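User:
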Amino acid sequence: MPMKLLKNHWPLFILIPLFTFLIFFRIDWLTLANWDEAWYGGVARAILQSGNWLKISWNGNPFYFHPPAGFWLMAISYKLFGISEFSTRLPSATLAVGSIILMYSSTKNLFQKKEIGFIASLILGTSVWYLVRARSGDLDSTFIFFYLLTFYLALKASKNFIWFIGVMISFGLLILSKTLIGVSAIVPILIFNFKQIINLKKNFKILLVGIFSFFAVVLPWYLTQILNYPEFIREHFINVGMRRKTLDSYFHLELTLPLFYLHMGIRKWYYIWLASIGVIILTLKFIKKEFLTLLLWNLVILYPFLTTNETHIWHLIPVYMPISMIISGGVYYGGIRVLEILRLKNKLKKIINIVYVLFFVCLAFIQIKNFYKEVYPTSRFTPDDVDISMKVAKYNKRIFLDESFKPVAIFYSGKNINWMMDLTEDKRTAFGLFNSQEKDFVMITRNNIVDELKQKGIELKVLEKNKYLSIISR
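Assistant: Predicted structure:
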């Protein structure tokens, strides 16, 4: 029985321990990064403190720029394990391991080949920016998990339509994970289930329950925002989701920066991906439903990023999903076609799969070796901004911040922070604040600013100090 289990599921016996190690190793050695990671941690902390899971806030103001699924999971992690770097990153890391399993299961079911599923997971997991974000408290891992879950369930629904209800629940959670881009999951959902969806006579009830389930998941949060915040639609969908892009901008390609970032994000897999697309086209494999779906899905996700120079390297992580499947399937069937032309397929039948797997395992090992120092810290380190933010937590006064690390200050102090850039013009400098009528406050600023204030004759107290920053008051 154990040998049969190993034979049937050998890829999972390799993938799960390998990527559990790669994702969790030294995951809490670094403090939260300023902006996104510390920002999101602060949002989750506010949920836990307020107990309000629909009207979310950050630093005392409404937060509706991103959907809440990732923050909900983080808040649950805080409730169970306390607030720390580890508990901030735990949901992301856990779902990242789950995504590796889903990538394997989805690709295996798509091509009916364990080896192809194994390689697709290996490619996704060793794409450096997938691993970087999987180890962080960002939203990408939550998004990828629910996207792959939706894809996997859509495949299941194509064989038994009762799974369509699960597809729509997962699709709802995907929409609640990140703004707008999850809509692209409609492509595989429709392609895999088109015949069942149009067969209303047979599947109407399941279709109706599925659609109802989707709205039951999505509407509570979205309706709460729409009813309470008049600016929500503009900020959430247009400014964040569409990045203020106009319809006309989608017809102007800006290839250089997005493709450079894609290359940097997946490293060695980039040119193999391009070659795989070529092989799929030249061998006419794109006629097959599996490859046609992957190519269309790849295009739908990637295209919007190719029309703007505001793309960041982490924005392209969703493209890694179809890329992983295209490479694993394209190389396998491309290799088979070459052997058929050379009339070697039958002779090499027993070792084709072994050579295929070993080729990608070697590339994955080289990939990990090359990016190891980029991903894994060599020592624990507390930066000055985190240190001073922890120290300011004990002061029960208004806190002013004369620096740019607002999310870090909010997360590590656990307090609301007054960022001086948000103040009226006469108070935006340390000198202006100390010359104002403001009383009973402390301020975080650079040590050289403290020296300048003293030179100008400002009387102040230095309450805390490190190499770079000070906490001061009147």
